[in-house]
C-alpha cells in the first residue's frame, strides 16, 4: 500500500528549476533513500512534501489524499513529520521541554504529553540529558533530539534530512540502529543522506536526483551500480571500494 | 528621597505592564508594534466610558478593557499584520504605524474621545486624590494598586509561559517558528494570541492610568516612547528585562523631576537620556533578548 505518492513534482525559484518533474512513491512501512549531489533538489523536495514550499507543478498524495498547499502544522497533525538538515532545536528549552512542545500538539492534556515525552526520551537514549538546555548539546545529541522531537508527534511518515551529517562513525552506527528501530515500529521513512554505508544499510529502495531531475530509482544494489549514478554522484572509487 | 524612590517605583510598575506587552509581541513575532501605545489609550477610553456611563470603577473595568484590547489586537494581527509580515519587518513597522494614526484619529471623533482632554472626576471615584500614608511615605492609592496588579500580572504571565501548553507553544514559536510548525503548532494562531495578549497588557495599564492621568486620543504616543526605552533598556524580547526596565525608568524620571532644577517639565527627557546611554554602551540591554 502506497503511503506517499509524488507525481511530476516541479519547483521553480525565478528562472531556476530546482526540481523538475520528479515522480516516486513510497510503500507503507518502507525506507526510501533519497540521494544525490549537493544542490540536486533533495531538501527542496522535502520542503514541498512537508508543506514549507508550495510546488510549481505536480501533485503530492499522502495516505490517499492530495496535500498540496497544506501548511506544515496541518500535515504534522495528519502524521507527517520531518527533521532538518541544519538542526533547529528550541535552544533555550530543556531537552524534555523540546519534546513536550511536540507532544502537546497531539496529546489531550499535559499529563498525557509528559508520559509520551518520557517514552520518546527513553526510546532515543536521551534520558541523561533530559534537563540539559538544548542549545548546549553536542551535534550528535542535537541530531538525536531532532529525531526524538519528530517521533514525539507520532508520525506515520518521517522525512529525515541528513540525520547523520557531522556525526562520528560510532554515532553513525547508533543512528542507523535508531532508524531501523523506528521503522520496525511501523513508521515509513524517507531518508536523505550522503553516508552511503547508512543508506545501503537501511533502505528498501533508493531514488537519485541530479540537477533537480530523477536519474535512477530501484533496489539499492541496482541503483549503486547504475552508470548514471556512479558518474553523477558516487564516483568510481565507490564501486572499487 | 525615599518618597521620590517610591513615587518612581509606583509609576514604573505601570510602565512595566505596557512594556511587557510590547516585548512579548517583539519576542514572539519580531514585530515592532508602533500602535502599542494606542492600546493604552483604548484601555483608558474603555474605563472612561464605563465610569462616566455606568459609574464602574476603573480597576473593575479592567475585566472589560483587557478583553477589548485583546480582541482589537487579535483582529489587527490576523487581518493586517500577518499579511504584512510576509513582506518583511519594514512592512509591519509601517503597517502598525498606519494603524496607530488611524486609531488616534478614529478615537478623536466627537462621539468617542473627541479632540479635547478628558479626565475621570466625581465623588464616586474612589481613587481620586486618595493617598495612603505608610510611615513617612505617601502613596497614590491608584498607582499603588496598579503596582500590585503589575506584580500579579508578571507572575501570571510567567506561569502562563512556563506551565501551560499555549505558553510553551508561544516560547517554541518565538525561538524556531519553522520547527514549531513542523511539530504541529499553528504558529499563525499563536502569533495572533500573542499580539492580542500584548495589547491586553497595554489595555490593563490604560485602565490603571485612567484613574490618575488625562485621557486623549494621542496619549498613546507618550507611552509608546516610554515602552521603547524600557524594552531597549531591559533587552528586546526579555520579560524580566521589561519588568525591571519599567521600574528603572519610573525611578529615573522621579529622581530627575525632583532633584534637577526645573526637572518636572523635562520628566520625559530623562528616560531618553537612559535610552541613548544604553544604545551606546549596552545595546543588547540589561537582560539580552528572548522570551
Write a brief caption for the model.
The complex is a heterodimer of chains A (241) and B (291). Chain A contains 10 helices and 10 strands.
What can you see in these coordinates?
By secondary structure, chain A is α/β, with parallel strands linked by helices. In chain A, 38% of the residues lie in helices and 26% in strands. A 6-stranded mixed sheet of chain A has the order 6-7-8-3-9-10, sandwiched between helices. Chain A has a 4-stranded antiparallel sheet with strand order 2-1-4-5, covered by helices on one side. Chain A starts with a strand and ends with a helix. Chain B contains 11 helices and 2 strands. Chain B has a two-stranded antiparallel sheet. In chain B, strand 1 and strand 2 form a beta hairpin. In chain B, helix 2 packs across helix 8 and helix 10 packs across helix 11. The model of chain B has no long low-confidence stretch (mean pLDDT 88). At the A-B interface, helix 2 and helix 3 of A face helix 6 and helix 7 of B.
Spell out the blueprint of helices and strands.
The complex is a heterodimer of chains A (241) and B (291).
Chain A (H helix, E strand, L loop, with lengths): L1 E12 L2 E12 L3 E5 L6 H8 L7 E6 L2 E2 L5 H6 L2 E3 L12 H10 L5 H14 L15 H13 L5 E5 L7 H16 L3 E5 L3 H7 L2 E6 L2 E6 L1 H5 L2 H8 L1 H5 L1
Parallel strand pairs in A: 3-8, 3-9, 6-7, 7-8
Antiparallel strand pairs in A: 1-2, 1-4, 4-5, 9-10
Chain B lengths: L1 H28 L6 H19 L7 H24 L3 H19 L23 E4 L2 E4 H23 L1 H11 L1 H6 L4 H24 L9 H15 L4 H21 L7 H15 L10
Antiparallel strand pairs in B: 1-2
The strand count of chain A comes to 10
Average pLDDT figure of chain A: 91
CATH architecture of chain A: 3-Layer(aba) Sandwich
Number of strands of chain B: 2
